[in-house]
């Protein structure tokens, strides 16, 4: 099942005939199952791309497997939402910024795809480091597909997605018994730069609605929920979630736009709409009551 480069064939990685230990030996992997590139001087290495999720922003919210993979990297291509401190885990690698800042692209997606292939073939192991989880609106699947089509070995290390962890860090659960039985995760801006039609569908439900990349479409989002009679539905906007410069705006559908102006909230931010937002206030009230009881006891 191994090819001439020491790797398991791409289609055999999930073979049910192998135990996890056997699969590690068959794939030529190291601790934690991270693929190891084994070059063959007689035929040359195909190169390896590993797409990694860096988590929501806090440098401690990256996985151990991601750290181990970074330590083996020859090149790291990283995005704007990635904490640069994480590059310290790859001290011997070439670091290339390929993200977008203030609407300006350092590289277009087609150029990133080509850079992945070229660096993998010239250097060996390329790590594509992305914020959150690369398979949640992160183009990770597209880059893996492109790399595989151009002859590279590919691997994936999932990350902690911001759509769940950022609300959680502010004590907002996306589900809660009696408040929300399900949740939507929607991109606010589609490939055509329009608001996703799924937002209108989500507004009709009782589910929690989490919208990424939606700040530029906030007025449209608010209008959709008002049409469904949900002006008093609670909403939270969290900018730079889990980071030191995090900002939080709370309100209702009717009031949130004023809150955004007052708090000067902007991208990158996550919008959470639904009754679960009240959980944060309820928890703060509990904390206040306990503090009052402690003061009385003293």
List keywords for this structure.
globular, 2 domains, Methyltransferase, Cobalt-precorrin-4 Transmethylase, Domain 2, 12 strands, 298 residues, five-stranded mixed sheet, five-stranded parallel sheet, Cobalt-precorrin-4 Transmethylase, domain 1, disordered N terminus, alpha/beta
Integer-rounded radius of gyration: 22 Å
| Class computed from helices, strands and strand pairing | alpha/beta
**Poorly predicted sequence stretches spanning 5 or more consecutive residues:** 1-44
Q: Quick one: overall form?
A: globular
* Percentage beta strand: 15-25%
The CATH level-2 architecture of the largest domain is identified as 3-Layer(aba) Sandwich
Number of helices: 9
Main beta sheet, described? 5 strands, parallel
Offer a quick outline of the entry.
The chain has 298 residues and is of the alpha/beta class.
């Amino acid at each position: 099942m191994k090819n001439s480069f020491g790797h398991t064939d791409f289609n055999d990685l999930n073979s049910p005939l192998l135990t996890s230990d056997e699969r590690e030996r068959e794939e030529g992997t190291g601790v934690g199952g991270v693929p190891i590139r084994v070059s063959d001087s007689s035929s040359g290495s195909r190169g390896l791309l590993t797409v990694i999720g860096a988590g929501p922003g806090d440098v401690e919210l990256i996985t151990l497997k991601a750290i181990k993979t970074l330590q083996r990297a020859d090149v790291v291509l990283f995005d704007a939402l990635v904490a640069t401190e994480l590059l310290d885990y790859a001290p011997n690698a070439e670091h290339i910024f390929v993200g977008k800042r203030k609407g300006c692209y350092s590289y277009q997606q087609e150029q990133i795809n080509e850079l992945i292939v070229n660096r993998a073939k010239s250097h060996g192991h390329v790590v594509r480091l992305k914020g959150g989880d690369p398979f949640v609106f992160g183009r990770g699947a597209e880059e893996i597909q492109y790399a595989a089509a151009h002859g590279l070995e590919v691997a994936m290390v999932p990350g902690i997605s911001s759509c769940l962890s950022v609300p959680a860090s502010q004590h907002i659960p996306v589900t809660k018994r009696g408040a929300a039985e399900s949740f939507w995760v929607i991109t606010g801006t589609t490939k055509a730069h329009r608001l996703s039609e799924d937002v209108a569908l989500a507004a009709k439900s009782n589910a929690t609605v989490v919208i990424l990349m939606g700040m530029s479409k906030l007025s449209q989002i608010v209008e959709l929920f008002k049409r469904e009679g949900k002006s008093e539905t609670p909403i939270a906007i969290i900018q730079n979630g889990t980071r030191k410069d995090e900002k939080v705006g709370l309100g209702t559908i009717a009031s949130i736009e004023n809150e955004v102006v007052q708090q000067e909230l902007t991208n990158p931010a996550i919008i959470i709409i639904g009754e679960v937002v009240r959980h944060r206030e309820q928890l703060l009230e509990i904390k206040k009551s306990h503090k009052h009881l402690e003061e009385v006891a003293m």
